[in-house]
């Protein structure tokens, strides 16, 4: 006797990637104001003052005067070049965008440039690590507040456009609290796991660069696998009003339900986003034509976020349908016994 009863009728499969993508772009076509926050954030990062880490980087460089071993010299040189780039061009205000999905989409946070159409940009120096940590805390909290408003608007419009029977988004204030809980969880996990990972890489670097490269590849693959299973965490928090831990649990379940579909969605989103980001970045930052790239990036990024929400809702409804069908079939089998 089978433990799991077979379904007499297979529920209709959820909508595919192309259908969800079309729906996502229809949402932004009907409600273009959803892209306003990304536009305003990018305009500030482009035209506003730069929060400079140059003084802090200078202190770090003084502590790393020479490479620990001759074998590590190429890696040491690359690290120094990266630090120079951060010191010269990085805008610490970019922390207003915590990351993909968790923050408001931003084109200018990725374009490390000092140029703007009028005059030189004023700089606010960050003198030491303590001030840097203080700025980071303030910027992340503000950025997550902006993200809560942004995601709430998209979740509300997607629910109205699709008319799927789900609770819909919480108020921006409560969603902000959930996002800060998720940020604390992610940062805690990062700091707990980064220490043994960095220790492993450092040890292998001193022993053998090839082993260190293999270890870095393995750790990167594990991180990608984890991120893949966390794709639906934000949609779950927004559309199903879940706290971070239930959202993570359900995200893993939904990813396993349609692993290839989830993988395909990520591939399509990356191709569309990165391909168009190249186009949006073509205008010179000293030209007002950059506004076109900022607006285009905001519209497409918002449409892709809406696509993810639609894709999530389709799989959520399909999972619920499967559960109801199995329950009904089990009850029918029990009644026939």
Give a structural overview.
It is a single chain. With 337 residues, the protein is mostly helical. The protein contains eleven helices and two strands, in the order ααβααβααααααα. The protein has helices at 17-30, 36-47, 54-63, 73-89, 129-162, 172-207, 209-229, 233-239, 244-257, 259-280, 290-336, and strands at 50-52, 123-125. Strands 1-2 form a two-stranded parallel ribbon. Helix 3 (54-63) packs antiparallel against helix 4 and helix 5 crosses helix 11 (290-336). The longest helix is centred in the last third of the chain and has 47 residues, at 290-336. The two termini are 12 Å apart. 30% of the residues are buried. Mean pLDDT is 84; it is low at 1-5.
Q: In terms of structural class, how would the helical and strand content be classed?
A: mainly alpha
Taken as a percent bin, the fraction of beta residues is under 5%
Low-confidence stretches: 1-5
Helix content: 55-70%
DSSP, total strands: 2
Distance between the termini: 12 Å
Task: Give me the number of helical elements.
Answer: 11
Q: For the largest beta sheet, what order do the strands appear in spatially?
A: 1-2
**Biggest beta-sheet profile:** 2 strands, parallel
Descriptive terms for the model:
single chain, 337 residues, mainly alpha, two-stranded parallel sheet, 11 helices, 69% helix, globular, disordered N terminus
């Amino acid at each position: 006797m089978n433990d799991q009863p077979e379904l007499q009728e297979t529920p209709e499969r959820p909508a595919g990637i192309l259908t969800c993508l079309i729906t996502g772009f229809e949402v932004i076509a009907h409600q273009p104001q959803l892209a306003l926050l990304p536009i305003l954030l990018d305009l500030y990062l482009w035209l506003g003052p730069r929060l400079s880490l140059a003084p802090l980087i200078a202190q770090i460089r003084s502590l790393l005067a020479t490479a620990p071993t001759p074998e590590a010299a190429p890696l040491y040189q690359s690290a120094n070049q990266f630090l120079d780039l951060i010191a010269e061009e990085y805008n610490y205000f970019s922390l207003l965008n915590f990351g993909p999905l968790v923050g408001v989409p931003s084109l200018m946070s990725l374009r490390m440039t000092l140029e703007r159409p009028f005059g030189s940009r004023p700089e606010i120096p960050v003198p030491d690590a303590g001030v840097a940590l203080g700025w980071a805390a303030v910027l992340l909290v503000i950025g997550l507040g902006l993200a809560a408003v942004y995601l709430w608007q998209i979740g509300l419009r997607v629910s109205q456009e699709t008319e799927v029977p789900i609770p819909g988004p919480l108020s921006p204030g409560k969603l902000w609290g959930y996002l800060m809980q998720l940020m604390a969880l992610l940062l805690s996990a990062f700091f707990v796991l980064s220490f043994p990972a960095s220790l492993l890489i450092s040890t292998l670097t001193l022993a053998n660069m090839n082993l260190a490269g293999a270890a870095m590849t393995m750790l990167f693959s594990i991180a990608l696998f984890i991120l893949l299973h966390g794709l639906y965490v934000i949609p779950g928090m927004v559309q199903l009003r879940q706290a971070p831990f239930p959202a993570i649990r359900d995200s893993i379940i939904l990813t396993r339900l349609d692993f290839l579909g989830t993988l395909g969605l990520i591939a399509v989103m990356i191709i569309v986003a990165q391909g168009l980001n190249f186009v949006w970045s073509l205008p010179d930052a000293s030209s007002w034509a950059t506004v076109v790239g900022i607006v285009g990036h905001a519209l497409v990024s918002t449409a892709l976020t809406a696509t993810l929400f639609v894709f999530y809702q389709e799989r959520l409804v399909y999972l619920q349908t499967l559960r109801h069908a199995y329950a009904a079939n089990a009850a029918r089998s029990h009644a026939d016994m």
